[in-house]
């Protein structure tokens, strides 16, 4: 920082949010709505640090104030087993919803622009550290000028540079095509969450994922749960086989692509990196370890944080409960060791558990009695064996090739 930049007084707000992804924008949305705090959102300027357009999916009873950003929704869910048999369920009262990041950005940016309490700043956040009464964020503007922000609280949603030590660390990695077919091939009312009619890797599991947008348009993805991402050529080959050999789409055009990597780990993510600096989103443990879903947890946590600040409380609640994380740790270890067959496990859950209860379970909203009943519908012996050994396993740091923001 130049001497002139060092003498420049810090700009002040109650809250500074670092990062304009799902977690940062969701918290800005809730705080702006309550008016409980003045908010500055720091987003990277256009360039390599700014992520490409992404898709976020979740299920909910109603869209509420997110309706304007929801680009598609489905009232019927389907899972295809490796044996080819399909399980079709009606998850009422839940609906599966898709939000495109650009639509969500427009909605939240508009709220910030129209609020006396909100502000959007395009800058690169360089350093964050505690100071008496709050924290300082030192930024660099696109012009190269240094800027210092001071806030009572900073919420950092930027992806972590490394993952905390874990007993199990897998990745959910995927590549998707937005396809347009020459003939009508899709049922717009039905979302295929998992289609296991694809070749399975030697380690982990693989599935197709189809979100129809119209009779002739859909987002089609190839996803793996395994230890390392694939090359782009390998994803493209897998998608080509799935679209042509499994779905039988005939002639089609790929209009856009998206690709990402999501950590699936039982690591303990710290929710603070300073006395006044909090971690949110994937970096704060919002990604559900066993599924990769993040968006719904981010919404719950954002509402809770906004309510806490409105009521004068400084606590940041955990995005997931301890029971949910403990069950996920067992499942991840069982998958990673190959003790359970992943396609059979997930297909079995949809075949044996009422869909509304299963979605509440995946959201961490079931009672211990309901969870016990669901557990009895899983491979009991390998899951028990895994649960017994977990407390004795060391947590180790492992490198991760790439981090991505969850598309769920």
Quick overview:
The protein has ten helices and 18 strands.
Overview of this protein structure:
It comes from Streptomyces fungicidicus. InterPro entries: FAD/NAD-bd_sf. This is Lycopene cyclase. The chain has 3 domains: 3-74 and 95-163 and 266-310, FAD/NAD(P)-binding domain (3-Layer(bba) Sandwich); 169-264, 2-Layer Sandwich (D-Amino Acid Oxidase, Chain A, domain 2), CATH 3.30.9.10; 322-392. The relative contact order is 0.16. It starts with a helix and ends in a 19-residue tail after the last helix. It has helices spanning 3-7, 22-34, 101-114, 232-246, 295-310, 322-337, 342-352, 355-362, 368-375, 380-389, and strands spanning 11-18, 39-43, 55-60, 70-74, 76-80, 86-89, 95-100, 118-122, 124-131, 134-140, 146-156, 169-181, 190-195, 205-214, 217-226, 252-265, 272-274, 277-279. With 408 residues, the chain is α/β, with parallel strands linked by helices. Strand 14 (205-214) and strand 15 form a beta hairpin. The radius of gyration is 22 Å and the shape is globular.
